[in-house]
Amino acid sequence: MKRWLSAFLALVTLAWGWTLLSAPGSAGAGPGNPWAVREHALTLTGLWSFALMSLVMVLATRPVWLERPFGGMDRIYRVHKWAGILAIGFAALHWLVELSAGVIKAVFGREGRLPKDRGGDFLEAMRDVAEELGEFAVYALLAMLVLTLWKRFPFRAWRYLHKAMPALYLVLAFHAAFLAPLDYWGQPAGVLLALLIAAGSVASVLALAGWIGRRRRVGGVVESVRESGPGLTQVTCLLDEGWRGHRPGQFAFATFDRFEGAHPFTIAGADRGDRRVTFEIKALGDYTRGLARRLEAGRAVEVEGPYGCFELPRGRGRRGQAWVAGGIGVTPFLAWLEALQATPEQAPDVDFYYCVRDRAADPFVARLEILCAALPAVRLHVISSIHNESLSAEVLGTEVLGDRMGKKEVLEVWFCGPQGLAERLRQGFRDMGAAGIRFHQEVFEMR
Q: Does the keyword Cytoplasm apply (predicted)?
């Protein structure tokens, strides 16, 4: 994520720097002039904020063609989230730079103030409107950021407020188009800005029209609903002919209630070619907590997908492999194991660690034991915290690689579970100095 965002911001900065150096009169507006510094800071922070907001809008369209480069739709959404946070942060900085005119005037006076672009009465009028709208949009974005980071704010209300983002983006596009310096439009920064406005505006229109993911949506009916365990609801759906099937480990957006909207769930089973998908849904919020009571067989459902690149690894040779699941994070591994039942000889040599609170009460342990029994290459380890058992990076390294641990062998860890456990394992590997660890994680956080 950091690599993608850093590269994107570097590209934007490069275009701005190129334009600045090639602009007429740039030498006279150097760092010794506080008004020039303010003007350049105003332009750069605005360009950073708008570029990131354009990226946010494009990623919101769920671009499947970017899944492989990013590593899955879950990672696209993670970049989407942090790009939005950075965009709002730069927008706030842009606003503060705008307010600095009074301070500069009081300290340095008006000398050295850069002349305004002249473009006629119409352009001046549009700039005034763009400036007012831009200030309003910044306030709205800051409020949206607070509500997004405040996890107690109800998801349903947040989802409807979030639908205003495309409209806010179009306001920002208007602001950027009319307030960008006139001499930018023949330079790299202007070309980049035009591309950003075009891409972001198209994405915003798609979002406002409800067309995001439309080609990947299919209808169907709920075939069965049952409580598979405490706080767990198993929902099996029979989908229409348009369903394209799924690869083990992928997820889909399911809509059981139009008012509630779509929610992402991992498909907890292999694709058998019968257009049936099963979701194991954990009660994590108001909506999922009462789902078993509200759903019944025969109810209409809409499923969009599949998405994701958390797929069954094959042909890994002598590399050590560990699968780690925590709680409901076991669902993609259930799909992997089911997919291998028909061809057990293709199963990779792997140690599978399933972390639960109480092994005896867990609804998935028995199913995992049956699936793994047919796959001799897959060794199941159930870690039960109620019995003071825990999983650590040292355990993964020594049990999976054994005497090869000190020979800098590659250990591949496929992880799906609580973020806290993932961070402990990553930190443990760093403390061990295990540079050869490849940590693949399903990052299932859409807000």
A: no
d(CA 54, CA 200): 5
Q: Computed over its alpha carbons, how large is the radius of gyration of the chain?
A: 26
CA gap 148, 150 in Å, rounded: 5
Cβ-count burial of 230 within 10 angstroms (0-12 exposed, 13-18 middle, 19+ buried)? exposed
Question: Are the beta carbons of 438 and 413 closer than 8 angstroms?
Answer: yes
Both tokens of 379, joined, read 């060794």
Q: In angstroms, rounded to a whole number, what is the distance separating the alpha carbons of residues 19 and 183?
A: 9
Would you state the structure tokens that stand for residue 226, as one six-digit string? 């049952």
Distance (Å, whole) CA 93 – CA 434: 39
Structure tokens at 436: 């050869």
Are the beta carbons of 159 and 259 closer than 8 angstroms? no
H or E segment and range at residue 429: helix 419-432
Q: Where are the alpha helices (DSSP H) in 66-110?
A: 67-70, 73-99, 101-108
Ranges of residues in the chain whose predicted pLDDT is under 50: 27-28, 316-318
User: Residue 396: which of 408, 386, 385, 405 has the closest Cα?
Assistant: 405
Residues 338 and 248: beta-carbon distance below 8 Å: yes
Q: What is the DSSP string of 3-52?
A: HHHHHHHHHHHHHHHHHHHHSTTGGGS-TT-HHHHHHHHHHHHHHHHHHH
Q: Which amino acid is at 207?
A: A
**Which amino acid, 356?**
V
d(CA 194, CA 263): 34
Question: What would the 3-class secondary structure string for 174-223 be?
Answer: HHHHHHCCHHHHHCHHHHHHHHHHHHHHHHHHHHHCCCCCHHHEEEEEEE
Enter the pTM of the model: 0.88
Distance CA 142, CA 157 (A): 17
Nearest to 425 by CA among 408, 412, 406: 412
Whole-number pLDDT of residue 28: 44
Q: Do 268 and 331 contact (CB within 8 A), yes or no?
A: yes
DSSP 352: E
Rounded-to-integer distance, Cα 166 and Cα 168, Å: 5
Residue 249 tokens read as 């480990």
Torsion angle, alpha carbons of 361, 366, 367, 373, to 10: 150
Helices then strands, counting H and E runs in the chain, come out as 15, 11
**Residue 352, pLDDT score:** 95
pLDDT value of position 156: 75
- At 109 the pLDDT is 79
Q: What is the model's pLDDT at position 91?
A: 94
